[in-house]
């Protein structure tokens, strides 16, 4: 390859990477929407907090599913660990400072993520699916076994938390907590975005696209996977912690397979590997669910099933993928 | 009978009956996944559909239990062909994730549909008198229905084994599971084979669903509640292997029953612990291929 | 002209002053309307609707506006969200419903902060009423049927030993603890307590029951969530020939829900349960209740203990509205009005205990029999009147806080 060619190749590669993450201006959009919601629908803020928590949860899954290509059915395990770290700390150790609770949850979930990832990420396909699923269920069963500690399915009720930063307290309308969750989400998101754009993030994409090749070029695949799995687990833990704090209550149902499945559906609907897919998917799913299950829960279940089927058949890259396709279509037309 | 032996017999008998149910319902999933690599999470929905058809046939049309089972299996088997041809075919080349999501979506739609028509309340099925109560097998009594399950399961295993090992079609299926490209190149129409296998597997699932009503009750959530269990049997047994599915069903069935009997506190823990243990050592299951 | 004006004004003043302000009381109903537990929600909802329809004139000129929301799954999170929104957005003055204990538990801090009464129509964990002074319960606590059953089983049924089997979740643990306390107090001995899996799916009961059958206690106390599990229990009990084997089946009334009883067949005959309601209960209020139910919902539809509780819940709310003359904006006044409320309902005499705000009701020992018309029904063997929640009386565990 001549020097000129090499330069050209590098340029093309750079353009390609940049193009994929180009939406710089449009990136402000979801944040503006979230802030606007605070003013436009101030009476739905408790619901709003739950949506943002799901966004964070979906974001953590996107790291492993969308970027690293690991398909897991047990992601709720980390959400649950984070939720229970905060819950148990508050109920048994009287540790009710919220922000340190988030850190504790992230560390706890991260440790479990590291251990399980190190052990399980050697496997793939159905094997990995079953192993991750079994892990989540075993955690839940263990919780039930020691329901004297965990409260079982009745959970740990009536948790109280100190006001944020010593000043901002919980209110019935959930205003304080909405902003708290939004701020935390922004911090987490910034962190995730840095990872994804870094060389590490590119290596992940490489692993997802062609793992054999990555092995062949000497990339430490397993180490990278475990790293991203640990980070994703920590983030899911933070989401779980926020869940307990905003609800002032946690039960063993946080480990349910339902949660793992729900967050995967949200991510697929929004579009994997696109960072903002989590935003779009979680928001769309939660809002649709809120609306339709009030109307008729049976139709909601049918509707979400149908949506999934249609998404896989016609919109494999989710809502954001549709936007992208549309954008490409317009670009094509402009070219002609 | 001495106490320990009595307990052992109880566990083995109940475990065996449960294992038969697991085998009958899961074998279709194992073969289709092994043959086409297609992850069909709507398999539980087919089983559920079979169950509901049996309920309707017995309760509304007054048809006897056994003929209802046969009819339900045939109906579901036939309908599954429509799904395979019309929908699944498009996704054979798709990623695992896409197959998972499509079939989960179908399962949700099925659950909602059956909830709409049958309501969420669990249903039971009227059994013929000869299947109720218990039967004396010489040294002690056993519930008749479970004895029936064991007999039926064994018969089915024998038939399936014969079909797989001794017939032409069985050989073709085994060849295609082993090495699809090779099988195609020697002239085996793998696509048609798959449709046949899929229909058979779904029909068996429906049979399993019908048999499960008496054992576990039937409600619309059956489709996903037991799916995990079927997936475990398939994963532990090894995709595409009759022997594997049988062994896995026996292990899971007996361990689960033993766990409940001896260490009820541990709950469902046993099944998952066994699954993790087996998969860590043999990731492709007992008789799977890497 | 002016005279007419004055007369008109006087007439208007008379009308306004004479008739009380006609209030519309907003009531938020939170029940599971979707998912596997939807039928439980519907049983209570039907009772609510029926009472409101038949007794609307009792509170005239006031009216009630019922706003219904889906309680969701037993995780508590959805219930908390929808109920909070009912309070903040729809501005309901009273919250009611609540099938699942986690829902009520999650909501307790909210109703305390918002000062809105929560009138529980089902959730049975004993210590729920301790969580907030704004909670009143019209249904039951697990201890209501289970504790008296302990004494009854030992003294009247003749159980010297009993094994307990229960679905492994808090109500199961509560109920068996209550039974054990009562049973051991009466002199009986508990041989073992076997958890039988999670409430989410109906397990194969055979291994659990087989183990108990092999151990041969006099009686087996079983607690399972009402509904599908009950049918499974009876099936396993019959298949294993346990009655022949000398193990009597006892439990709370959840064991023989009225809408499943007919399907249970001969295996159920001889089962003895302790409960506060059965369709066959012989009192005039229950007869009227059943008649109204069949008229509204068809002859194949039956009320059950949840519907009876729902009926009494709406009754208590209506009586409170009448007592306060429609003025229900002060939550603490509503709760105070409910304390000590007593009335005759389909269950018999029910009272809201003034100090615990929990229900006081009669518990009946009932045996399953085949009636003259061929259907399965229950025969009342005996009644313990005015049963309180013993968990709080004896201050057991969390009930003492």
Number of domains of chain B: 1
The outline of chain A comes out as globular
- The number of helical runs of chain A is 15
Structural class of chain A: mainly alpha
**Count of individual domains of chain A:** 1
Strand content of chain B: under 5%
Task: Name a few traits of the molecule.
heterotrimer, B: 290 residues, mainly alpha, ABC transporter involved in vitamin B12 uptake, BtuC, two-stranded antiparallel ribbon, C: 401 residues, alpha/beta, Rossmann fold, 2 domains, 21% strand, disordered N terminus
Structure summarized in a few sentences:
The complex is a heterotrimer of chains A (336), B (290) and C (401). With 290 residues, chain B is mostly helical. Chain B contains twelve helices and two strands, in the order ααααββαααααααα.
Word description of this protein:
- The complex is a heterotrimer of chains A (336), B (290) and C (401).
- With 336 residues, chain A is an all-alpha fold.
- Chain A has one domain.
- In chain A, 76% of the residues lie in helices and 0% in strands.
- Chain A has helices spanning 3-20, 28-40, 45-67, 76-92, 98-120, 125-145, 147-150, 175-197, 199-209, 211-216, 221-247, 257-270, 277-295, 297-314, 318-335.
- The longest helix of chain A is centred in the last third of the chain and has 27 residues, at 221-247.
- By secondary structure, chain B is mainly α.
- Chain B has one domain: ABC transporter involved in vitamin B12 uptake, BtuC.
- Chain B has helices at 3-36, 43-59, 65-86, 96-118, 144-166, 168-178, 180-185, 190-216, 222-225, 227-237, 242-262, 269-281, and strands at residues 134-136, 141-143.
- A two-stranded antiparallel ribbon of chain B has the order 1-2.
- The longest helix of chain B has 34 residues, at 3-36.
- The model of chain B has no long low-confidence stretch (mean pLDDT 88).
- In chain C, the strands form two sheets. In chain C, strands 6, 7, 8, 9, 10, 11, 12, 13 and 14 form a nine-stranded mixed beta sheet that branches. A five-stranded parallel beta sheet of chain C has the order 2-1-3-4-5, sandwiched between helices.
- The longest helix of chain C has 19 residues, at 305-323.
- Chain C is globular, with a radius of gyration of 23 Å.
- In chain C, 60% of the residues are buried.
- Chains in contact: A-B, A-C, B-C.
- At the A-B interface, helix 6, helix 12 and helix 14 of A face helix 4, helix 10 and helix 12 of B.
């Amino acid at each position: 390859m001549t020097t000129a060619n090499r330069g050209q190749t590098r340029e093309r590669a750079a353009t390609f990477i940049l193009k994929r993450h180009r939406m710089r201006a449009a990136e402000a959009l979801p944040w503006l929407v979230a802030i606007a919601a605070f003013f436009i629908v101030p009476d739905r803020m408790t619901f709003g907090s739950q949506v943002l928590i799901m966004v964070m949860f979906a974001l953590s899954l996107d790291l492993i599913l969308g970027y690293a290509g690991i398909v897991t059915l047990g992601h709720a395990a980390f959400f649950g660990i984070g939720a229970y770290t905060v819950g148990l700390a508050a109920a048994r150790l009287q540790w009710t400072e919220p922000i340190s609770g988030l850190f504790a949850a992230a560390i706890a979930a991260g440790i479990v993520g590291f251990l399980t990832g190190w052990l399980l990420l050697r496997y793939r396909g159905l094997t990995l699916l079953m192993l991750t699923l079994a892990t989540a269920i075993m955690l839940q069963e263990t919780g039930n076994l020691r329901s004297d500690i965990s409260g079982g399915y009745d959970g740990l009720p009536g948790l109280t938390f100190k006001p944020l930063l010593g000043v901002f307290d919980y209110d019935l309308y959930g205003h304080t907590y909405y902003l708290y969750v939004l701020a935390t989400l922004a911090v987490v998101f910034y962190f995730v975005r840095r990872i994804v754009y870094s060389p590490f993030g590119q290596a992940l994409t490489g692993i997802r696209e062609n793992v054999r090749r990555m092995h062949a070029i000497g990339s430490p695949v397993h180490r990278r996977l475990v790293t991203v799995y640990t980070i994703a687990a920590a983030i899911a833990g933070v989401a779980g912690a926020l869940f307990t704090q905003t609800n002032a209550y946690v039960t063993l149902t946080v480990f349910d397979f339902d949660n793992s499945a729900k967050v995967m559906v949200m991510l697929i609907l929004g579009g994997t590997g696109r960072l903002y897919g989590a935003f779009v998917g979680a928001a769309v799913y939660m809002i649709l669910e809120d609306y339709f299950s009030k109307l008729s829960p049976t139709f909601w279940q049918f509707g979400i099933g149908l949506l999934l089927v249609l998404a896989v058949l016609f919109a494999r890259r989710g809502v954001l993928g549709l936007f992208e396709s549309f954008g490409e279509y317009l670009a094509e037309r402009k070219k002609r | 009978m001495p106490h320990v032996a009595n307990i052992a017999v109880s566990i083995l008998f109940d475990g065996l009956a449960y294992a038969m149910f697991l085998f009958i319902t899961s074998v279709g999933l194992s073969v289709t996944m092994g043959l086409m690599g297609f992850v069909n999470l709507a398999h539980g929905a087919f089983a559920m559909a079979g169950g509901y058809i049996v309920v309707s046939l017995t309760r509304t049309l007054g048809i006897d239990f056994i003929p209802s089972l046969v009819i339900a299996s045939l109906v579901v088997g036939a309908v599954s062909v429509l799904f395979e041809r019309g929908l699944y075919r498009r996704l054979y080349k798709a990623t695992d994730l896409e197959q998972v999501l499509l079939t989960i979506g179908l399962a949700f739609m099925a659950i909602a549909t059956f909830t709409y028509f049958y309501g969420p309340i669990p249903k039971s099925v009227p059994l013929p008198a000869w299947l109720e109560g218990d039967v004396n097998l010489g040294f002690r009594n056993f519930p008749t229905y479970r004895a029936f399950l064991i007999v039926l399961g064994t018969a089915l295993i024998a038939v399936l084994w014969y079909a797989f090992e001794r017939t032409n079609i069985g050989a073709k299926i085994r060849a295609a599971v082993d090495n699809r490209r090779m099988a195609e190149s020697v002239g085996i129409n793998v696509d048609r084979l798959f449709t046949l296998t899929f229909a058979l597997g779904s029909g068996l699932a429906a049979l399993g669903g019908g048999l499960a009503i008496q054992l576990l009750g039937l409600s619309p959530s059956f489709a996903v509640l037991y799916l995990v269990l079927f997936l475990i049997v398939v994963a532990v047994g090894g995709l595409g292997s009759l022997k594997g599915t049988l062994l896995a069903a026996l292990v899971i069935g007996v361990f689960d029953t033993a766990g409940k009997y001896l260490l009820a506190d541990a709950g469902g823990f046993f099944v998952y612990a066994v699954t993790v243990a087996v998969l860590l050592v043999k990731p492709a299951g007992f008789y799977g291929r890497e | 002209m002016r005279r007419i004006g004055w007369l008109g004004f006087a007439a208007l003043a008379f009308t306004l002053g004479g008739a009380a302000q006609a209030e519309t009381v907003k009531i938020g109903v939170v029940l599971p309307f979707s998912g596997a537990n939807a039928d439980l929600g519907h049983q209570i909802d039907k009772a609510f609707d029926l009472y409101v329809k038949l007794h609307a004139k009792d509170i005239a000129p006031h009216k009630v506006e019922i706003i219904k929301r889906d309680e969701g799954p037993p995780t508590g999170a959805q219930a908390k969200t929808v109920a909070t929104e009912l309070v903040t957005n729809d501005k309901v003055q009273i919250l009611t419903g609540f099938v699942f204990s986690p829902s009520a538990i999650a909501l307790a801090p909210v109703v305390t902060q918002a000062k809105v009464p929560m009138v529980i129509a089902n959730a049975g964990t004993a210590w729920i009423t301790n969580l907030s002074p704004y909670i009143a319960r019209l249904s039951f606590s697990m201890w209501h049927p289970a504790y008296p059953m302990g004494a009854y089983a030992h003294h009247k049924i003749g159980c010297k030993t009993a094994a307990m089997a229960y679905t492994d979740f808090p109500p199961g643990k509560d109920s068996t603890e209550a039974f054990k306390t009562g049973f051991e107090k009466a002199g009986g001995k508990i041989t073992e307590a076997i958890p039988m899996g999670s409430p989410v799916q109906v397990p194969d009961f055979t291994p659990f029951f087989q183990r108990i059958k092999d151990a041969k206690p006099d009686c087996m106390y079983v607690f399972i969530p009402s509904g599908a599990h009950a049918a499974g229990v009876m099936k396993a009990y019959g298949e294993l020939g346990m009655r022949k084997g000398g193990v009597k089946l006892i439990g709370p009334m959840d064991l023989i829900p009225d809408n499943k009883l007919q399907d249970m067949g001969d295996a159920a005959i001889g089962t003895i349960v302790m409960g506060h309601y059965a369709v066959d209960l012989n009192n005039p209020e229950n007869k009227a209740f059943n008649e109204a139910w069949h008229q509204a919902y068809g002859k194949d539809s039956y009320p059950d203990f949840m519907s009876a509780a729902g009926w009494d819940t709406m009754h208590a709310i209506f009586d409170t509205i009448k007592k306060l003359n429609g003025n229900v904006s002060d939550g603490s006044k509503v709760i105070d009005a409910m304390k000590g409320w007593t009335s005759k309902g389909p269950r018999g005499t029910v009272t809201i205990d003034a100090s615990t705000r929990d229900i006081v009701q009669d518990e009946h020992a009932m045996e399953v029999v085949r009636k003259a018309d061929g259907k399965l029904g229950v025969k009342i063997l005996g009644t313990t009147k005015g049963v309180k929640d013993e968990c709080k009386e004896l201050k057991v565990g969390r009930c003492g806080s």
